[in-house]
Specification:
It is a single chain. This protein is rod-shaped. By secondary structure, the chain is an alpha/beta fold. The chain folds into three domains: 3-35 and 469-717 and 726-743, P-loop containing nucleotide triphosphate hydrolases (Rossmann fold, 3-Layer(aba) Sandwich); 47-65 and 436-463, no CATH class; 68-80 and 95-435, no CATH class. The two termini are 36 Å apart. It contains 27 helices and 13 strands. Helix content is 59%, strand content 10%.
């Protein structure tokens, strides 16, 4: 197998690997969806920096801001549903529900209870200190009612865990004392009112009995028996009416006693609310619902308030917002409690008026019955005696009922001295929960830092319009990617970059340029790729370096190749091959020099160079003239391939002129530099003049990128297993040039290196 057949076989295998790795389907005017994870990975250092800043902030916060501690005391309150009530209203509310418990929560947070707790904590403090401590207790207390177990949890937050436990226990004890005193006072006041009423009725009973005895002495001739023989039917009817009167008068006495007790505490809203609750006052549905809702809002806000104060301090906007909400809810609850108390007193006044009307109506009915009895009775004296007898019986019954009610209230007062409050778990400093918890805060901060960094990376990726991967470019332009050139190492001279295939033929970069050569060889029919235009959207994309290395690789494949520098504005090919630009293509076009003299030989066997020559004043006109077309035709008869390095597409029109004249065009894009808009404009500019755009070469791809993984895992090796490099002491290139010459390579400036 000769050298040419070996190279073609090698090229065919490289093309198959290249097409399997990089060929992408064409898309019609649609941009490929960005790879989110790839975008984050490209900005990984920014993500890491932001995450570190978040963690540093969290550590600084933990060291500077003192922590707060939350202590919980759990209590169970058994509602006094079994206690007797005076009014006996049917359908009273069930005080075992959450409404009753939320009422107790409001009582616990009331100034009366917190002030009592402050006095327990600081018995010798002055009024100003007690007022400040009362406000602190109210602000730092966060009670809540369990949804399933009806257990009230009192959560108190403080900088010291032992102080938090002491304060929450003091509030619990103050609530028990307050509830005991309130219930006892309410029952005692109602007992006093009923005792007053009972004394009056007992005096009335004595008078009625005396009147009955006097009547018997004055009328000894009467038979004082009724009902058995039917001689006093009207007396039996009157007895029933008097029984009804007794019931109505008892209801009036109860209503009067409860109203008097309520009026005695109407200026103390918590006591008034407590009395109404203990007497099963149903209340209006609207007021109850509004009170429960506002109490829940206040409790939630106070819970957040304690957390904000412990975590962020009192100057943060969340603390100020919740503090304002707590003040607003407390004011609303005070207004609602006043309305609730007024409704309760109005409710009792209505009961009293109703009872008075009932008593008045019953007395009128009795009076009418007595008149009828007197008019029809055989003996008027017997009717008078029946009246006296019924009055005595009614008063006796009324006094007995009052005794029973007073005894019941006495039992209630005794029970209220031992409130049905069970402390399930008192507050303990060792059980305090620290806020914030360092481990939790660091984990949350780490997560927040990563999320913020990822967000920053995605925003930068969204605002970054540069192309980065072969897949993205293929989807964007709808063109195949026929080559991916990896990033060259730093420290290489521009000359070493321009002749990488010649000086370092076993490198990954050289293999990439040979893959482009292979794509051109198999991408078009034989003989139809003689003139090849190499261009890019903007300067600095690496078109000149690719043109020189592509020409070298074609010459190494046994093709007689000419590298033509048609960039009349910034020519660099003569510098890349250490030639002078005194003569060149512009001199030939101007008729100052023959073509044969302008073409120069290079150090690469089979490769000639036609420099640009002196810079003309009208480069576009020169390229668009018939002279250039004739020269290009003449050169095509002599060379197998002519690789033309031309100016960028967007900047000037030269590339479009050459693209229309030549067999095919190659568009070079630099990863991480070329923008999407620039790539689209370059493609459109070439296609608009009918250029045969074979594909795109992605240049300067980072070696760690996924799309260049093939070259990271495979490369040719020299015979002894060591890969020769430019500058090696003992290495030599494939064409036999010594490393000593490589060390003497000049470093010309101004070369479009990549």
């Amino acid at each position: 197998m000769n050298r040419k057949q070996l190279i073609d076989s090698e090229a065919s295998g490289a093309l198959m690997r290249h097409e399997a790795a990089y060929s992408a389907p064409k898309l019609e005017a649609e941009e490929a969806a960005p790879n989110i994870f790839a975008g984050i990975w490209r900005h990984r250092w920014a993500v890491l920096a932001i995450t570190i800043l978040f963690v540093i902030g969290a550590v600084f916060y933990l060291r500077v801001i003192p922590p707060s501690y939350s202590v919980t005391s759990q209590i169970y309150i058994e509602a006094p549903a079994s206690l007797p009530t005076l009014t006996g209203v049917p359908g009273a509310v069930d005080t075992s529900g959450n409404e009753y418990l939320w009422t107790q929560v409001a009582v616990m947070q009331s100034p009366a209870v917190c002030s009592a707790a402050a006095k327990l904590l600081m018995p010798n403090a002055n009024d100003e200190e007690l007022h400040q401590l009362t406000n602190d207790l109210r602000n730092n207390l966060s009670p809540d009612v369990g949804r399933r177990d009806n257990v009230i949890s009192l959560v108190y937050t403080d900088k010291n865990p032992d102080d938090a436990a002491t304060n929450v226990n003091a509030i619990t004890n103050a609530y028990i004392d307050y509830a005991t005193k309130t219930h006892g006072d309410s029952s005692q006041k109602m007992m006093d009112a009923l005792n007053t009423e009972k004394t009056a009725y007992e005096n009335q009973l004595h008078k009625e009995r005396d009147a009955e005895a006097d009547f018997k002495k004055a009328h000894p001739e009467l038979q004082y028996t009724t009902g058995a023989n039917g001689s006093n039917i009207f007396g039996t009817q009157l007895a029933k009416l008097y029984d009804n009167l007794t019931t109505d008068e008892m209801a009036l006495a109860n209503a009067t006693a409860e109203l008097d007790a309520a009026n005695s505490v109407k200026d103390d809203l918590p006591k008034l609310v407590q009395q109404a609750t203990s007497q099963n006052y149903p209340g209006s549905a609207a007021t109850n619902a509004e009170m429960n809702n506002d109490a829940k809002i206040e409790s939630d806000a106070e819970g957040r308030l304690a957390g904000d104060k412990g975590n962020l301090g009192v100057d943060n906007p969340f603390y100020r917002r919740d503090a304002a909400l707590v003040v607003e809810m407390q004011a609303k609850l005070q207004v609602l409690e006043q309305r609730y108390g007024q409704e309760y007193i109005g409710y009792l006044e209505g009961l009293k008026l109703h009872a008075e009307a009932q008593v008045k109506a019953m007395k009128a009915e009795i009076e009418n019955a007595e008149q009828d009895s007197a008019a029809t009775a055989a003996n008027a004296d017997a009717a008078d005696y029946s009246k006296l007898e019924n009055e005595v019986a009614a008063t006796e019954k009324l006094v007995d009922q009052m005794d029973q009610t007073i005894n019941g209230l006495s039992v209630a007062a005794h029970i209220s001295q031992i409130p049905n409050v069970t402390i399930l778990a008192p507050g303990r400093g060792e059980d305090a929960v620290r806020t914030p918890q360092p481990s939790v805060l660091l984990v949350l901060t780490l997560a927040a830092g990563l999320a913020s960094g990822a967000g920053f990376a995605l925003i930068r990726e969204k605002l970054d319009h540069r192309v980065r991967s072969a897949e993205e470019i293929a989807g964007l332009l709808g063109l195949p990617v026929i080559g991916v050139v990896p990033h060259m190492k730093r420290g290489l001279t521009p000359l070493a970059r321009a002749q990488a295939v010649h000086w370092d033929p076993m490198s990954e970069v050289s293999e990439a340029y040979r893959a482009v050569r292979t794509a051109v060889h198999f991408g078009v029919p034989a003989g139809q790729a003689r003139t090849i235009v190499v261009t890019s959207p903007t300067p600095g994309d690496g078109k000149s370096t690719l043109a020189s290395n592509l020409a070298i690789s074609m010459a190494q494949a046994g093709k007689h190749t000419l590298l033509l520098d048609a960039d009349f504005r910034r020519p660099v090919q003569h510098k890349m091959f250490e030639l002078k630009d005194e003569s060149g293509l512009t001199a030939v076009l101007a008729g100052h020099e023959p073509l044969s003299k302008a073409v120069r030989r290079t150090v690469v066997e089979g490769l000639d160079l036609l420099p640009a020559g002196p810079l003309p004043l009208n480069p576009s006109e020169l390229l668009n003239g018939e002279s250039f077309a004739s020269i290009l035709e003449e050169l095509s008869q002599k060379y197998d391939h002519i690789v033309i390095d031309c100016p960028p597409v967007i900047a000037v029109t030269d590339a479009r002129i050459l693209g229309a004249l030549c067999d095919l065009s190659l568009l070079v894009l630099r990863a991480g530099k070329t923008t999407r808009q620039g790539a689209e404009l370059a493609r459109s500019g070439l296609l608009s003049v009918g250029s045969r755009l074979l594909g795109v070469i992605v240049n300067d791809v980072p070696r760690g990128e996924e799309q260049y993984g093939y070259y990271g895992s495979y490369a040719y090796q020299s015979g002894n297993g060591n890969r020769p490099r430019i500058g090696d002491e003992n290495g030599s290139s494939a064409n036999g040039h010594s490393s000593a010459r490589r060390r003497r390579l000049p470093s010309p400036s101004g070369i479009d290196s990549m």
